[in-house]
């Protein structure tokens, strides 16, 4: 989006900067997002990380997890898999039309 | 000195002199001779290029687009169903701004199967974003093929170009063709200088997914580039005039200044129309001819200027658009007239389909019918001429 705002488009939409797909937000249409209710209780087991179909669970240096909301589609698999039920799905604040 | 060449041989010679890097093609009548000659040139060592004998026209144009993105000068040729099979890739070559040059030996589309000339094939791809040039004869086939590379590869354009020649009537008929010697051709058309290209040492992405905020903007670049083509073609033609003493223009105009009836058409039929017009003038019917050489972008302003003294227009289409109010050329001309606020009777006549002959006598008859009609004469908007013979 930032480059679109700058108005710089090479002929044919060629992209001169390698790896720029990482900047592409692929989940802005998500309807609900996972939230870790209690970081202290997270054991870093890491079932949510294994089952996440996107690379949207990030393992921190201390082994606990956090979410990459740029890529999380809100499928809820992590919430279903967490053995301690520490992850809950929270509805995104929509634009009013659901 | 003129060489005796078929239209196909003339195109192949121009492509050889353009010193292309890659030819990818699949044989189809009536185009086959073009790529056969190129295969021979490459096999004989007369042309240092990669010839890719692909398994379909879809693959041919895929190969051409990819090769073009490496910075290569690329050529292919096709016709009819082959062009239809390329349709998918035509939009991709245009959208990715690949300056591929393609000769189309225009031929009818199936069904029923027919190998002969009409313009149904290219008219089906007229919205693909390719520059589309029609030639009338073998000399123009040679000249416009060389010019097409220069136009396509210009950094202000970067669009693929089709050079359309009537199947058999141009592709197979032999005529005298003035050719450039190799050094003059090379002087006119030096090696391609690509703007962006696939290069492992400087990685770039081509053909990335474009979300709604990007797609329209990127696709609109094709419209912007098209808008620069008419002027650029004039520059290319001025340069070509210096090396060849030949130049054509977006429109071929014949006696339009004081014409009451102007015939508009594209391709080889323009020559027939000029002969018919000459005969009609001998009988006192003032007829002129506009040969639409540049079809995309459509030179609407030049056409309006050319027909400014006309009282009625005869638009000859060698293609149909079933269910549409007019055939393709008729639609374009009527839109141009409407936009310019010009209200003229337009008679759109479809003829010559599937290789049906369009004779001088028939064009004379059509023009005479139009000249003799008055505003009170009811006339069909579009006439499918001589369906039953």
Question: Could you please say which CATH topology of the largest domain in chain B applies here?
Answer: Rossmann fold
Distance between the termini of chain B: 42 Å
**What's the rounded overall pLDDT mean of chain A?**
87
User: Which term fits the overall shape of chain A?
Assistant: elongated
Largest sheet of chain A: 2 strands, antiparallel
Q: Please give the alpha-carbon distance between the first and last residues of chain A.
A: 24 Å
Main beta sheet of chain B: strand number and arrangement?
Answer: 7 strands, mixed
Strand content of chain B is: 15-25%
Could you give me the name of the CATH homologous superfamily of the largest domain in chain B?
Answer: Thiamin diphosphate (ThDP)-binding fold, Pyr/PP domains
Strand-and-helix sequence of chain B, N→C? Answer: EHEHEHEHEHEHEEHHHEEHEEHEHEHE
**Global Rg of chain B:** 21 Å
Tally the helices of chain A.
3
Provide the gyration radius of chain A in Å: 17 Å
Per DSSP, the total helix count of chain B is 13
Mean pLDDT of chain B: 96
Give the helix/strand layout.
The complex is a heterodimer of chains A (98) and B (389).
Chain A: H1 2-6, E1 32-36, H2 47-51, E2 57-59, E3 65-67, H3 77-81, E4 87-91
Antiparallel strand pairs in A: 1-4, 2-3
Chain B: E1 2-6, H1 7-17, E2 22-25, H2 32-43, E3 50-53, H3 57-69, E4 74-78, H4 80-95, E5 101-106, H5 120-123, E6 131-134, H6 138-153, E7 161-166, E8 174-178, H7 182-188, H8 212-227, H9 229-244, E9 251-254, E10 261-265, H10 269-282, E11 287-292, E12 294-296, H11 300-306, E13 312-317, H12 328-339, E14 346-350, H13 360-372, E15 382-384
Parallel strand pairs in B: 2-3, 2-4, 4-5, 5-7, 6-7, 10-11, 10-13, 13-14, 14-15
Antiparallel strand pairs in B: 1-8, 6-12, 9-11
Helix pairs in contact in B: 1-2, 1-6, 3-4, 6-9, 10-13, 11-12
